[in-house]
Design brief:
The structure is a homopentamer of 339-residue chains.
Chain A lengths: L17 E7 L4 E5 L12 E7 L4 H10 L4 H8 L6 E5 L2 E12 L4 E12 L2 E6 L7 H9 L9 H14 L1 H22 L3 H33 L10 H63 L8 H4 L3 H22 L4
Parallel strand pairs in A: 3-7
Antiparallel strand pairs in A: 1-2, 1-3, 4-5, 5-6, 6-7
């Protein structure tokens, strides 16, 4: 395929693509479904075009043309395996990141790609899934809560990124509780083979999460430092705050990874300890009874001339020797701290 | 929640928020409880507003407004899981770090977030806990000891950071003594399963400590290099000293981590060694007695025609063979260094 | 050998070197086999000379001289173990990379070196193998599809690099499916010794792949940032896209490597678990039967005076003791969770 | 304590502090004990004040005041756990490093902190220990050997650092010989449990050594690149040489660390191998004799009707079977390479 | 010793130091043994003084003085444990690197230090060993082959470095073949204890090789970027090529190191697997025969009243039970995949 061909690579293809257009200023707020404003002919104020579910590539190409988005950026919107990134184009910024949640049953990270374009007085957002992750942002704009209506498209873009990144704390909490559950189970029930698989799954999830966040940190830091003319200086602290959040989440993940290594170490140690206990029991039993059995075997021999057999207290004498030997060995094991 | 909403995320919520205001210059020192000076209407000299216990978000918002602190910074003050950081705002610096001490019983790091704002002739500090970590600083200012009264707000900020960071040396000492105790116990009593858990806990604590210090080092270095106009050039060596202290603590932590790995290695080696000893004993006992028992078993068979049974010295001959075989095997084990 | 001597170090030496020349502009497209245009005397428009199979060093030297390529660069073209790299010469850029595919049977990475020179209005490409990896690019140019005919030699070079790098996704997919196969086999059949070798081979392949990509990432990033005058500013987003692709592939590889470590850990854990089970069975059997055998051995002794032997229910009494002891031990093992 | 309080943290407190003053130029050399020149009133030429043993903080404070040293630097001089560092003050440089030697018996690194101030025409050195590490430097100056008398204070500072760092090569040699001894013992005597502890100690020592050198490398490199006006351009190669030495020592340490890992690996492998041998012997003995004992047990049963017992050659037949079985098993073990 | 004292630290001290002087231009070539040209009075054209075997420190000091080399550089020439490095002096460049070859028998890296000075129209080279590593360079110059005679001293220096670095490929090939031999032996003969030592030696060699190359890469890169006026711009591509070669060799080494880790992993896995097999055999034999022996022991007891003993088919019945039990256990082991 020549570069720039639009192909949707996501796996959720049953839902129709929906386009919501919003335009607002400090005084007014309008909303219209299935309407794509033209670049040359935009409504006054700040426009926000939100596209959900990316199955209809033709419609998405039409949105891209109407709003003069770069074909390579549109291609990235549809390729849902993108790394988080910030790209600067001639008339705006393009940000890709992922909404994440943890499928607690299979301990898998479920990802929805979200792409945001920001230009002079307009924002375009593309959500991979049909359900609206950005609902709270639109609601706040609609009701005039917070600062959204008073500020420019950079604050709207920030609000979108913020709501997506805020949700990562939920994923963190889910990972933490899974980790704590594992730890307390290890404490109360001892090491189970099923735990090994859970440790592995948790490691995989934290590693995937980390792989998502490392490029996101770069992208957010570059956004905060961007000299794009559409970013208002007064809004920089918000972008810095975003960057702090990502760094904080990464810190927690690194922390969880070290905890996981520790839990794995404890698991291994208990398994090894258990093998030691098993071997110790085997050795104690064998060391006591094998020599005793040998003695019994000796006096079970059928030689004609075995004088001890005819002693009157021979049997009791041998029993006494056996008892003494086994008590001696028990004392030895006690001294060696094996018992 | 829209960004900038003030929510206290700490866990100590039973104490009322207290505000202490102090203002001083080289000649005078005044102190007043439960009083928040207004930005436009500050007392002459250097003002220091100290807030302890962060439960009353309304009061804290009032302090923030009175002293014109940025809403995002206030939000950070209340979110007590912040990473240590330095932020530069229009009229001042904002520093977040943590007072730390080691709960020696559970080997856990207990953290209290401390946030400091510094602007022209004023400092605002927020302590998460109701007890006053900064008492010594105020006392020195009150009694006119040291340089505090002769210098500006930058030196006051430095004194606050210094007293918090100085306390980290206590944590270091606690970790070191826990490590030494572990090492000497391992030497005297041998490896115990309880030690594995202690090694794990110590690793977790040093790792958490390190996670706190890495961003702190960056923040302190940036403070030392900051071109903020409220920092007096003559005070730079003090800030550099702070940065040296953090680097020194980090060095010690890295050192402890390597020592811990070494102790863990010794622990593993002793456990492995013990298993080897157990297996060796089992093998020696089995190798000696299993063949002997077999011989005894042979002469315990009830065949009609077993000529050896009727030899007069058959029994003693067999006993002699058994004795020779076991001595031979003992010599073999000796040569193999198993005994 | 003095530096600059041309020696072909590849292993495919049976095919004759072929030269295809193409020249085109937006309106026209010409193609001629076995023809090398002279630098001073090039056809109008953009020239593309494509050389396949590098066995004929004399012919390649002639191409190099005709198009004024640097002798060291020509030497690199023929040394097929080069690292991916970008070099800037006086009148153009020189890029080396490798076409890769996975030999799925032996899990080996097969590599074909591809070198591209780009100068004012001309591109020279050298393919190590006789089959044409770049066919799709020429076809698009010939049929006037895509943007190739409308753009300069930088876009042609980009198209060549893009088609080679796009093929890496196929290698990624092959590695992923090998990994999934391994994982599911481990799940269904348990750990097999053959899997250890497969894990090793997969590790080797991903490591080789990564070794190819790390310098390629640098080279592509430097290409994107190059200030070479023959790169049109409007084409930079395409080069950035290339760099994104390489970063994305590297991310996936790092991900696979962590998954492989996880799978290896699970493999080890199952092997260790199996050893534990074996030892446990041995211990249970021994612990139950060795003491019982000892009791039997005692009453197999031939002492004259053994009163129990003459008790009427002595045998049944001893059998009862044996039964009780073994049930007791079974209960003990049950409590210890060994059964 | 307020910052800048002088407290000596070293552990050698029994010796009195001694001050030696030296002043020289190309023609003359003077030396006077227990004399501290005043900054304003220094003798002509280059002054070198050398302080040994740091117990008398009052005297050291007097030296500091007389020579106008910064209070924070003086505090660092007395805190003997400093990291190696270079600090630039208004009228000079301040360098901290450590004299090191290896206590070969306990394999411990013994450290003496040495601090050097260098300003226009004067040098002040502080040695933690009473014995004079810098004797050779003063002797060369006194006798007019080498370049010391012809050059400025920067060369004197260089000579001091050089003599301290040169001594590190002795530590390196000691570590190397301990490592070689360990390796050859492992070769000749096989793995001993005492070796594990020695490996651990060597690892700790190399790690401590490395922790000292990493910041030293930075400090020396910064010294070499410093734009301090008191450094003569013609002396830069000497400072670069110093930096090379530290890099070379670090290289050797990294090399020893890898060798240590290798020795540890060999140790582990031999321990593992030994366990394998023990288990193999146990298995061979058990596998041969347990079945044979069973056969003997069968014919030791007391059933009335056991026809084989009455065969004339039954006993010899059974012995033959036993012999055949054990030879067969020996052949099997031979084929399996267990013998 | 004061810095700058000349001491030869190499171990080959039996050969006399030899000095060969060469001077040439595009037209002429002269050569004279045991002759050191004076700096002020050099022959016309490019002079190359080649010193072999460094035992005669007085002669080397004379060479240094005649050609005005810096005393510290001369000291480095004689200290044959230098790290590879490039140093820029006032009138020229100074490069240290090492000729390497692999002693295949002991798997040890044998190193010869080679130092090169390059100034305006002259080159001085010092070879640690008496045999001439640079023969091919002189021969090419003498016979006027290649570009040496047409170019300046920078090209001569390049040729010297190139011939030394080219030889590293031979070391690489030797390492690779040792690695392949190890791998194929592991495949065909299984894990042998001798292989562990070989893996360790190979690891040590690759690690030493890498330690040599890392600083060499820096030095070569700095040479390529050096703004030394004696480097002709037209020769930069040659220096870049040198830097590429070192990077390529480092890549191969990293690759071999990962392969070695893989081979080590396979070795460990086979050793572990073998232990598993041994334990499995022991467990199978014990689990089958210990219970059977117990049954035999029961009927070997001498109680008066044991009814089974008197049953006519008691013996055969018991034999049948034994047979059934052992077949049952064999089936169980088969199901558990232990057989």
């Amino acid at each position: 395929m020549p570069p720039g061909t639009l192909i949707y690579t996501g796996h959720r293809t049953e839902n129709a693509t929906q386009v919501y257009s919003v335009w607002y200023n400090e005084a007014e707020y309008h909303e219209r479904e299935a309407y794509v404003p033209e670049w040359q002919n935009r409504p006054a104020g700040i426009s926000w075009v939100d596209v959900r579910s990316l199955t209809d590539t033709a419609l998405i190409e039409r949105v891209g043309n109407a709003l003069q988005l770069h074909p390579l950026a549109l291609e990235d919107v549809l390729d849902t395996q993108q790394r988080p990134k910030l790209e600067e184009y001639d008339h705006g910024l393009f940000f890709i990141l992922h909404g994440l949640h943890l499928d607690a049953e299979h301990l898998e990270l479920v990802s929805e790609q979200i792409a945001v374009f920001m230009g002079p007085a307009f924002v375009v957002s593309f959500q991979e899934d049909p359900d609206d992750t950005l609902q709270a942002v639109r609601k706040r704009a609609q009701e005039g809560l917070g600062r959204t209506r008073k500020k420019g498209p950079d604050y709207l873009m920030y609000s979108i990124l913020d709501i997506v990144i805020d949700h990562y704390y939920v994923v963190l909490d889910d990972i933490e509780s899974a980790l704590h559950e594992l730890e307390s189970e290890l404490h109360s029930n001892g090491a189970q083979t099923s735990q090994k698989a859970r440790i592995f799954e948790l490691k995989r999830v934290t590693s995937q999460f980390r792989h998502r966040l490392l490029p996101l940190r770069d992208a957010v830091t570059r956004l905060y430092r961007s000299d794009c003319p559409y970013i208002d200086e007064a809004n920089r602290p918000y972008l810095r705050d975003l960057s702090d959040h990502v760094a904080q989440i990464l810190d927690s993940i690194d922390n969880y990874r070290e905890l996981l290594s520790g839990v794995e170490g404890l698991y291994q140690a208990e398994i090894g300890n258990r093998l030691n206990n098993v071997m110790r029991l085997l050795t104690i039993i064998s060391t006591i009874f094998i020599p005793l059995s040998f003695i019994a075997g000796v006096y079970g021999m059928n030689f004609d001339n075995m004088p001890e057999l005819h002693w009157h207290y021979g049997y009791f004498f041998v029993l006494g020797i056996m008892l003494t030997a086994s008590i001696g060995m028990l004392i030895y094991f006690r001294v060696q701290r094996w018992l």
